[in-house]
Amino acid sequence: MLVAKPRGYCAGVDRAVLTVEKALEAYGPPVYVRKQIVHNAHVVRTLESQGAIFVEETEQVPEGATVVFSAHGVAPTVHAEAQARTLKTIDATCPLVTKVHLEAKRFAVDDLDIVLIGHEGHEEVVGTTGQAPEHMHLVDGVEEAAQVQVRDPTKVAYLSQTTLSVDETNLTVEALRRRFPLLQGPPSADICYATSNRQTAVKEIAEGADLVLVVGSRNSSNSVRLVEVALEAGAGASYLVDDASEIEQAWFEGVSTVGLTSGASVPESLVRQVMDWLAERGFDDVVEVESARESLQFALPPELRRDLRLLGVSGT
How far is CA 80 from CA 83, 89, 243, 286, in A? Predict the structure, then answer.
């Protein structure tokens, strides 16, 4: 069994989950969370059992209650809605998503058309579009990049969702650059370090695997991309599973080497369950393939840190 490293929780997910846990500790339940805090069904169920209530829209939160905004980020209009309802807000937006928001605002101030590379309807894309909606053009892939229309081809910039395929996004940027030679971009890549590192790692294990299992939820963009990257890198097959219960024995006919990784919002406990399932069926020789080391950590949201200090709660 080839097990990818790094895998699982990234710094932004770790911060977001801890934010909800510490908010529950500081304020007591219920604490409301707008959208899934991260895209993992097990994480959401665990937090619900502790007293978190997940809602789709701000209007579902009772006036004056506490609401946490998810790691994927929100548009300024959502902050305005929360203020109008006198909600206590805690913003758990991943700092790397906030970076993209700030870039969008900067390009808008310069009156550039902004081509946002991403998946329509994804919460992160909705939040980023909301930073400068009158300037945004969403494209998903090379074909749409070839068709996007802008006001002035000399005044165009691009941004991207942080959880996309690195290779596919580079192809899309190249297509945009052919159309708009003066295309501007962010100072550093928008695709986050964790997404990039996990894709690099899965490429390494896919080369030697007959089958690659990716632990992650189906609404997790970065997890879905790992399946695609594994197949493109040469894996004989690749499947996305939420946990060990979704694995099918039939997948392993003729399989001698299995690769294993997990998306950036997946607890390590779920990976261990899958490893145990595989070990029970003869895949008990584990080789960890490390492609990068991660040490990045993000502080909790400042508004939560302040309240934790005032309340004398640890974890600030």
Answer: 5, 11, 38, 51
Cα 269–Cα 66–Cα 77 angle in degrees, nearest 5:
100
Gyration radius (Cα) of the chain, Å = 21
Alpha-carbon distance of 39 to 35, in angstroms, equals 9
Token pair for residue 266? 């997946």
Residue 71 Cα distances to 5, 12, 74, 97, 231, angstroms? 23, 7, 9, 8, 28
Q: Which among 152, 135, 162 is positioned nearest to 71, based on CA atoms?
A: 162
Instruction: Write down how long the chain is.
Output: 316
Tokens of 83: 């203020």
- Residue range 51-72, pLDDT digits in tens: 999 999 999 999 999 999 999 9
Positions of the chain with pLDDT lower than 50, given as ranges:
none
Indicate which residue of 103, 123, 124, 204 is catalytic. Answer: 124
Q: Return d(Cα 64, Cα 82) in angstroms, integer.
A: 9
294 assigned to active site? no
The tokens describing 26, both together, are 């500081």
